[in-house]
Amino acid sequence: MSKENARIKEFWQGFLKAKELDSSTPYYESFYFANEEWADILLGLVIEGTKTATCGCKLSYEAEEQQMPRVGDYSIVTDFSGVPHCVIQVTKVTELPFNEVTWDMAKLEGEDEVLKTWQDGHRHFFQLEAEEYGFTFTEDTPVIFENFEVVYRG
Predict the structure, then answer these.
(1) Residues 6 or more apart from 82 whose CB is under 8 A from it?
(2) 8-41 pLDDT per residue, tens
(3) Which end of the chain has the least Cβ crowding within 10 Å, N or C?
Protein backbone atom coordinates (compact mmCIF):
# COMPACT_ATOMS: atom_id res chain seq x y z
CA MET A 1 0.00 0.00 0.00
CA SER A 2 1.40 3.37 -0.96
CA LYS A 3 1.98 6.10 1.62
CA GLU A 4 -0.91 8.12 0.13
CA ASN A 5 -3.32 5.16 0.29
CA ALA A 6 -2.31 4.41 3.89
CA ARG A 7 -2.88 8.06 4.80
CA ILE A 8 -6.35 8.05 3.22
CA LYS A 9 -7.25 4.75 4.91
CA GLU A 10 -6.12 6.07 8.31
CA PHE A 11 -8.05 9.32 7.80
CA TRP A 12 -11.20 7.41 6.80
CA GLN A 13 -10.91 5.13 9.82
CA GLY A 14 -10.60 8.21 12.05
CA PHE A 15 -13.78 9.60 10.52
CA LEU A 16 -15.71 6.34 11.00
CA LYS A 17 -14.61 6.11 14.62
CA ALA A 18 -15.39 9.78 15.38
CA LYS A 19 -18.87 9.48 13.85
CA GLU A 20 -19.47 5.98 15.25
CA LEU A 21 -20.19 4.60 11.79
CA ASP A 22 -19.87 0.97 10.75
CA SER A 23 -16.42 0.06 9.43
CA SER A 24 -18.00 -1.09 6.16
CA THR A 25 -19.29 2.43 5.40
CA PRO A 26 -17.89 3.33 1.96
CA TYR A 27 -16.72 6.63 0.59
CA TYR A 28 -17.50 7.77 -2.94
CA GLU A 29 -14.03 9.05 -3.73
CA SER A 30 -10.89 10.66 -2.42
CA PHE A 31 -10.08 13.71 -4.53
CA TYR A 32 -8.79 17.24 -4.85
CA PHE A 33 -10.76 19.97 -6.59
CA ALA A 34 -9.94 21.04 -10.16
CA ASN A 35 -6.20 21.01 -10.87
CA GLU A 36 -2.81 21.89 -9.40
CA GLU A 37 -3.44 25.62 -9.69
CA TRP A 38 -6.80 25.56 -7.88
CA ALA A 39 -6.83 22.46 -5.63
CA ASP A 40 -5.45 24.01 -2.46
CA ILE A 41 -7.33 27.29 -2.91
CA LEU A 42 -10.65 25.47 -3.28
CA LEU A 43 -9.86 23.18 -0.35
CA GLY A 44 -9.34 26.30 1.77
CA LEU A 45 -12.76 27.59 0.73
CA VAL A 46 -14.32 24.26 1.75
CA ILE A 47 -12.59 24.25 5.14
CA GLU A 48 -13.67 27.84 5.91
CA GLY A 49 -17.27 27.07 4.87
CA THR A 50 -17.36 29.38 1.84
CA LYS A 51 -17.52 26.55 -0.73
CA THR A 52 -20.54 24.30 -0.17
CA ALA A 53 -21.09 23.07 -3.72
CA THR A 54 -19.28 21.82 -6.79
CA CYS A 55 -20.20 21.23 -10.40
CA GLY A 56 -18.99 18.62 -12.87
CA CYS A 57 -19.71 17.89 -16.51
CA LYS A 58 -21.92 14.80 -16.83
CA LEU A 59 -20.05 13.67 -19.96
CA SER A 60 -16.79 13.65 -17.98
CA TYR A 61 -18.33 11.31 -15.40
CA GLU A 62 -19.43 9.06 -18.25
CA ALA A 63 -16.04 9.19 -19.99
CA GLU A 64 -14.33 8.19 -16.73
CA GLU A 65 -17.00 5.51 -16.14
CA GLN A 66 -17.55 7.07 -12.73
CA GLN A 67 -20.78 6.61 -10.81
CA MET A 68 -22.83 9.78 -10.52
CA PRO A 69 -22.83 11.26 -7.00
CA ARG A 70 -25.86 10.62 -4.81
CA VAL A 71 -27.31 12.31 -1.75
CA GLY A 72 -25.62 10.86 1.31
CA ASP A 73 -22.32 9.99 -0.42
CA TYR A 74 -19.19 10.73 1.58
CA SER A 75 -15.96 11.90 -0.08
CA ILE A 76 -12.52 12.66 1.29
CA VAL A 77 -11.13 16.00 0.12
CA THR A 78 -7.36 16.26 -0.15
CA ASP A 79 -4.91 18.96 -1.04
CA PHE A 80 -3.10 18.67 -4.38
CA SER A 81 -0.41 16.45 -2.87
CA GLY A 82 -3.00 13.94 -1.66
CA VAL A 83 -3.06 14.80 2.05
CA PRO A 84 -6.64 14.38 3.37
CA HIS A 85 -8.17 17.38 5.14
CA CYS A 86 -11.89 16.74 5.48
CA VAL A 87 -14.85 14.52 4.68
CA ILE A 88 -17.82 16.02 2.88
CA GLN A 89 -21.30 14.55 2.46
CA VAL A 90 -23.53 15.26 -0.53
CA THR A 91 -26.80 16.90 0.52
CA LYS A 92 -28.34 17.56 -2.90
CA VAL A 93 -27.64 16.58 -6.52
CA THR A 94 -29.09 18.51 -9.45
CA GLU A 95 -28.64 17.61 -13.12
CA LEU A 96 -29.31 20.46 -15.53
CA PRO A 97 -27.93 22.05 -18.71
CA PHE A 98 -24.85 24.22 -18.12
CA ASN A 99 -26.70 27.35 -19.23
CA GLU A 100 -29.41 26.82 -16.60
CA VAL A 101 -27.09 27.05 -13.59
CA THR A 102 -28.29 30.11 -11.69
CA TRP A 103 -26.30 32.61 -9.66
CA ASP A 104 -27.99 31.29 -6.50
CA MET A 105 -26.44 27.90 -7.29
CA ALA A 106 -23.07 29.09 -8.62
CA LYS A 107 -22.32 31.37 -5.67
CA LEU A 108 -22.37 28.31 -3.38
CA GLU A 109 -19.10 27.27 -4.99
CA GLY A 110 -17.55 30.32 -3.30
CA GLU A 111 -15.20 31.13 -6.17
CA ASP A 112 -16.79 34.04 -8.00
CA GLU A 113 -18.46 37.39 -7.46
CA VAL A 114 -20.88 37.17 -10.41
CA LEU A 115 -22.44 34.49 -12.61
CA LYS A 116 -20.46 35.52 -15.70
CA THR A 117 -17.07 34.75 -14.16
CA TRP A 118 -18.40 31.43 -12.85
CA GLN A 119 -19.65 30.56 -16.34
CA ASP A 120 -16.40 31.65 -18.03
CA GLY A 121 -14.22 29.65 -15.64
CA HIS A 122 -16.34 26.51 -15.74
CA ARG A 123 -16.85 26.74 -19.50
CA HIS A 124 -13.05 26.85 -19.95
CA PHE A 125 -12.54 23.89 -17.57
CA PHE A 126 -15.29 21.81 -19.20
CA GLN A 127 -13.95 22.56 -22.69
CA LEU A 128 -10.52 21.28 -21.62
CA GLU A 129 -12.16 18.11 -20.30
CA ALA A 130 -14.10 17.76 -23.54
CA GLU A 131 -10.86 17.88 -25.54
CA GLU A 132 -9.27 15.33 -23.22
CA TYR A 133 -12.20 12.90 -23.35
CA GLY A 134 -13.29 13.45 -26.94
CA PHE A 135 -16.72 15.01 -26.57
CA THR A 136 -18.14 18.41 -27.48
CA PHE A 137 -19.08 20.82 -24.71
CA THR A 138 -21.94 23.22 -25.47
CA GLU A 139 -24.11 25.55 -23.41
CA ASP A 140 -26.72 22.77 -23.28
CA THR A 141 -24.34 20.07 -22.03
CA PRO A 142 -25.69 18.54 -18.81
CA VAL A 143 -23.81 19.24 -15.61
CA ILE A 144 -24.06 17.64 -12.19
CA PHE A 145 -24.33 20.24 -9.46
CA GLU A 146 -23.64 18.92 -5.95
CA ASN A 147 -24.37 20.63 -2.65
CA PHE A 148 -22.36 19.28 0.27
CA GLU A 149 -21.43 19.87 3.86
CA VAL A 150 -18.21 19.22 5.75
CA VAL A 151 -18.93 16.46 8.25
CA TYR A 152 -15.37 15.83 9.51
CA ARG A 153 -12.05 17.62 9.77
CA GLY A 154 -9.04 15.45 10.55
Answers:
(1) 4, 7, 8, 32
(2) 999 999 999 999 999 999 999 999 998 899 999 9
(3) N
